[in-house]
Input
Amino acid sequence: MGPPGTPQRAARGFANGKADYLTGLRKIEGQVRGLQKMIENDTWCPDVVTQVGSVTRAPGASACPGMAG
Output
């Protein structure tokens, strides 16, 4: 903490909401594992495409909400 009147810096890293970030990353991990299984099982293409869309949208929304666009 600096002298009175000195602006405070925002916390760096993932100190605030760390549990939420980890939950989001685990969700992404599960989606990727599901996608791998779908490809291994020769799942119907439109279903795979839908899952790919979910996986590619997830990182911005779940892992780094401030960067989601």
